[in-house]
Structure formats: C-alpha cells, structure tokens
Amino acid sequence: MTAFCGIELAHPVINASGCFDALAAREVFGDSLIERFPFAAYVSKTVTLGPRAGNPPPRLWEAAGGLINSIGLPNPGIDAYLETHLPAYAALGVPIITNVMGSTVEQFGELVERVALRDEVAAIELNVSCPNVATGLDIGADPHELERLVTALRPLSAKPLIVKLTPNAADVAACAAAAESGGADSVSLINTLRAMALAPGATAPWLGGGTGGLSGPAIRSIALAQVASVAASVAIPVIGMGGVASGADAAALLDVGATLVAVGTETFRDPAAGRRIANELAQRFAENAA
Ligand SMILES: Cc1cc2nc3c(=O)[nH]c(=O)nc-3n(C[C@H](O)[C@H](O)[C@H](O)COP(=O)(O)O)c2cc1C
What we know:
The protein is of the alpha/beta class. It is built from ten helices and 14 strands. It starts with a strand and ends with a helix. The model has no long low-confidence stretch (mean pLDDT about 95).
C-alpha cells in the first residue's frame, strides 16, 4: 500500500489528467476494466465552470519521441461533470481526484467549493497552467500569484489540494514552495511543455491552436530534473510525471523524491500501462529487498 495525503492507494501509479478516458475505456473493456483497473487512483480530465469545445483541429502532432497536443481542455463543464461523469468514475473502485481549472481566483473558488461537497472525491487537483488575464503568464508560473490563489482556495475545502505546476516557469521550485506556503497538500508535475510544429511543406503551424503541449519520452529527462528540484524544495508529497513508460522510468521519479508517479501519453499506446508499470515497480522493490 502507498499512503498519500491520508489516502491509502494500492500502489504508487496513477493516471495523468486528460490521459486515459475511463468512460470510453469502460465501454471498450466492460466490467473487466473495474476488476483490474490499471491505476491506484483516477484523475479526471480538467473540468472548467462552463462547457468547453476545445481547440480547432488538427489537435495532435507526433513529435520526435513524443506528442504535441492542442486539445484545449474540452470538457462538459462542472454541472454535467458532477451529475454524470463523477458518479460513473466513483464506480471504478479507486479514489477519485478531480482536476479543475479557472481563469480567475473566483472561478477556481466556485469549482473547489462545488467539488468539495461531493463525497466521491478524494482530492482536488488545481490545473494552474492557465493564462492570467492581467499578466499573460500562466497563473502557476508566478510564485506570488500562485500563493495568493492557493491561500484563497485553502479554506474552501478540507479535501487534499494538489497543485499541478506548470513547467513553463522560470523557477518551478519557487512555484512549488509558493503552493506549499499557500496551504497545498501536494504538488504534481510536470504538465506539458509549450511546443510548436510546422505543417509539412508549409510555414504555418500545423496545430489548430497554433502551439500545443509536448509530452511523452521527449520530456522525461526534463521531468526528472524538475521533480528532483521540487522534491528537494518542499516537504509536501510530490506526484511526478512526464514521459513515464516503464517501471524504470517510474522508479527514477520515486528515487528523486516523488511519492506517486502519473502516466499520461504512454496510456494512449498501451491502455494497461498503469498496471504494467506498477507490476514492474513492485518487482524492482522485491529484487532490491532480496
Ligand atoms: C492529450 C493530452 C491531454 C491532456 N489533458 C490534460 C488536462 O486536461 N489537464 C491537465 O492538468 N493535464 C493534461 N495533460 C497533461 C498530462 O496530465 C501530463 O502532465 C503530461 O502529459 C506529461 O505526462 P506524460 O508525458 O506521461 O504524458 C494532457 C496531456 C495530453 C497528452
């Protein structure tokens, strides 16, 4: 068992937000998905106050060793999420972490208050990779803004608050420390790195959104450096992610101080990756203990 913010997890591997659609997977795999759910907890895709259609297509580009996505956070909005998605997630049989994003402190506040009322939710993850209207910077890229946000949200819920840091910041460890000072129970990283691809034979961007976020093996060593730096700077538990595709990749993040590891892009290639990576990790632990 792995303890995380007062939650008991069967192993240290969870999914990364926006990767692994549990409702679609249930349709494809049926009840066998629940009998052998690949992750120790399920993290929802980011939910916003109102519904969002996401970015215009094309939304994906296969980069060297990774994926650039410009999905643009399509989601049904908090009303539909709480009414239909959350009860379906609760049937998965693992703790549910709801990931939310607002454009202002007030929007984040309303989202946290509404999610906090639901017993099905074990923890709330705050996606702070959203532009601050005043500065144009991501809210999570500015330690002062981030501390102000977390300080305002902290009293609104007794549930653990996880701050999903942006890697597109000058000093990620300073942002993690700011989240901790504001009262966060945990930080998770890394989110995708801002990236661009040109259409073949053209000078215009391929992605409908212009730029997108790079994920997958291409970002693994950046994730390792950022997770190590953050874990050395804060006392709260860290969820490490970025390019994890094997037990060895997961073990590296745990070795530099992560408590949990999240798997994102690899789940598109192998939907059972969470279970495989957890098994590979358990085997490594057993070998090391022998
Ligand atoms: C297609 C796609 C959709 C994503 N959607 C979200 C999202 O809704 N919210 C979020 O916080 N992160 C989102 N992410 C970022 C992942 O949760 C993760 O931080 C990142 O992809 C790095 O992990 P990976 O290399 O294992 O994919 C998304 C990533 C991908 C590839």
